[in-house]
Amino acid sequence: QVQLVESGGGVVQPGRSLRLSCAASGFTFSSYTMDWVRQAPGKGLEWIAFISYDGGNEFYADSVKGRLTISRDNSKNTVFLQMNSLRLEDTAVYYCARARGRGWFDLWGRGTLVTVSS
Amino acid sequence: DIQMTQSPSSVSASVGDGVTITCRASQGIGNWLAWYQQKPGEAPKLLIYAASTLQSGVPSRFSGSGSGTDFTLTISSLQPEDFATYYCQLANSLPRTFGQGTKVEIK
Question: Rounded distance, CA B102 to CA A87, Å?
């Protein structure tokens, strides 16, 4: 079954860290670039990070640059999002998404909720 | 960075109505645009890519057009399951910016 499944979300205090995972199955993971997209409660979609096929290239939204790090392990069909120095405004549902063609997202996970709260 | 501006932010319509949503890019992007539908509590779903190509399985009442800076998503005859929020997204560029979203509500 072709799917993405995120995990690792939860409640965390400001300034702390969290690591999200996204497990892929049913397709050749290493043939796709992967991204993370988040959605704050009641707000729109915000693209936050990209990683190339082999993990050699990364790109971040300005809002998360220097605090969030995307990585992947093609041997485990998994993409990660390391989140450091978390802020209240990082509270959101975090989706991983498979990018196809020129960068449209044809496969999404169901999301994992990260709540930053003291 | 290229900015994506959607309008309107919300629209009220009835079943059977036609609806058009607009997305404008701050500079020319060719046809590198995608449209998504999102229902409450669900992940977004790809509807259209490359501005006008319908994703497999998406009903033909959805259509996209445009190139350069101005794009439209049209729903020809709204069905009950189409009441949702719609987003445009810049492709072929980083950051992969989304528009602010357009909520299609029942009148």
Answer: 28
Cβ of A102 and B32 within 8 Å? yes
Instruction: Answer positive or negative: Cα dihedral of B84, B55, A46, A116.
Output: positive
- What DSSP string describes A58-80? EEE-TTTTTTEEEEEETTTTEEE
pLDDT in tens, A61-108: 999 999 999 999 999 999 999 999 999 999 999 999 999 988 999 999
Cβ <8 Å between B97 and A59: no
Q: Which two tokens stand for residue A30?
A: 């290493």
CB contact under 8 A, B98 and A103: no
The model's pLDDT over B31-53, given as tens digits with 9 standing for 90+, comes to 999 999 999 999 999 999 999 99
